[in-house]
């Protein structure tokens, strides 16, 4: 297999016909052996039926379907796990990532890179708030992480088998794949494209899912929030110490001690806020530690037509064999 295309699908019934037609046309034109893997992430519309039909009609097309909605990053992970191409393309299923770019991405990869990501030159049809928060987030992330996560890119990219194999060795539960790929290294480059509007349907990424993704990105690649919690502790207690010195001085040398209600309220509330914030930050990290220590499988596959590919089963068999 020369090239695999992995497309996560969550309620994309309105986009699937056009998507499949455009991707198939691109694959037809490529002089190599290709496969197209749709990962159904617990859609509750007709997406699953549609991809099953497509897979039945075209031997190049395969499907994986989850037992429920596990999220975009996990759906990509499953597709990568079961792909067999020497190179793998990951793209969205809502036609925001133009399939026609696949050939260019593949050609660029052959120039001697392991990853070619597609960078958004422009983005159409997104709300001003989403554009602004995305912009701020990627720049913040770039500042606080030691890994060079490319600005203004999603998961639309092509990567070599080497990179896919490296990704498979990173079993963390809280996936931020674009960060993991940056962390892996090798020669990486990018192509620019204009990201169009979602063709039909509604975004599967709700704001709470997006915030979750952002938090995963930060906590997986930076300890700065923890350090800031420590740092704010030092600053606040330093300030409190100075106030204490003044309070003692005022009591014994100036012989006046005011009524003190405002100062007590302010310091109690301020300290309470700082403490809660610090505890919250620590909690975010501990929650992720907990998720990883439970060692649950990342996803449960309900059904797939990819031969020999029920990883949850093979894992439990593996465990049983190990004793
Ligand atoms: N998606 C998914 N699971 C989810 C949410 C989204 O597999 O829980 C898929 C969705 O079908 C699409 C891609 O991930 O192919 C990107 O989702 P979306 O277009 O909603 O994200 P946005 O473009 O708004 O960032
Ligand atoms: Mg989209």
From TrEMBL:
Q: Where in the cell is it found?
A: Cell membrane
Topology versus the membrane, per the UniProt entry?
Answer: Multi-pass membrane protein
Recorded hits in InterPro entries, A to Z, give: Glyco_trans_2-like (IPR001173), Glycosyltransferase_2 (IPR050256), Nucleotide-diphossugar_trans (IPR029044)
Q: Which GO terms describe its cellular component?
A: plasma membrane
Highest taxon, organism lineage: Bacteria
Q: Where are the transmembrane segments?
A: 231-252, 264-287
User: In Gene Ontology terms, what is one molecular function of this protein?
Assistant: glycosyltransferase activity
Which of UniProt's keywords are assigned here?
Cell membrane, Glycosyltransferase, Membrane, Transferase, Transmembrane, Transmembrane helix
**SUPFAM superfamilies in the record:** Nucleotide-diphospho-sugar transferases (SSF53448)
Task: Name all Glycosyltransferase 2-like domain ranges.
Answer: 4-165
Family the UniProt entry places it in: Belongs to the glycosyltransferase 2 family. GtrB subfamily.
Q: What is this protein identified as?
A: Glycosyltransferase family 2 protein
Supply the source organism for this entry.
Answer: Hymenobacter cellulosilyticus
């Amino acid at each position: 297999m020369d090239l695999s295309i992995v497309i996560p699908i969550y309620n994309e019934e309105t986009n699937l016909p056009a998507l499949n037609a455009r991707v198939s046309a691109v694959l037809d034109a490529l002089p190599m052996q290709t496969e197209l893997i749709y990962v159904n992430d617990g859609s509750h519309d007709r997406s699953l039926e549609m991809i099953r039909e497509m897979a039945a009609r075209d031997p190049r097309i395969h499907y994986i379907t989850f037992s429920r909605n596990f999220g975009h990053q996990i759906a990509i992970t499953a597709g990568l796990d079961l792909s067999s191409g020497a190179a793998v393309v990951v793209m969205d299923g809502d036609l925001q990532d133009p399939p026609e770019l696949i050939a260019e991405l593949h050609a660029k990869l052959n120039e001697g890179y392991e990853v070619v990501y597609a960078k958004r030159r422009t983005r159409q049809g997104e709300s001003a708030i989403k554009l602004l928060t995305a912009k701020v987030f990627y720049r913040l992330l770039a500042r606080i992480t030691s890994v060079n996560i490319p600005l203004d890119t999603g998961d639309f990219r092509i990567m070599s088998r080497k990179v896919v194999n490296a990704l498979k060795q990173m079993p963390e539960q809280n996936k931020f794949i674009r960060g993991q790929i940056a962390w892996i290294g090798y020669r990486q480059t990018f192509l620019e494209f204009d990201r169009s509007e979602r063709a039909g349907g509604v975004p599967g990424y709700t704001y709470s899912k997006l915030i979750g993704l952002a938090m995963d990105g930060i906590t997986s690649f930076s300890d700065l929030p923890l350090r800031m919690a420590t740092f704010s502790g030092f600053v606040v207690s330093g300030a409190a110490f100075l106030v204490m010195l003044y309070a003692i001085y005022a009591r014994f040398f100036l012989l006046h001690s005011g009524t003190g209600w405002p100062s007590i309220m302010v310091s109690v509330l301020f300290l309470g806020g700082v403490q809660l914030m610090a505890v919250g930050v620590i909690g975010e990290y501990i929650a992720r530690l907990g998720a990883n220590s439970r060692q649950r499988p990342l996803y449960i596959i309900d059904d797939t037509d990819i031969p020999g590919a029920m990883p949850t089963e093979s894992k439990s068999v593996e465990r049983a064999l190990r004793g």
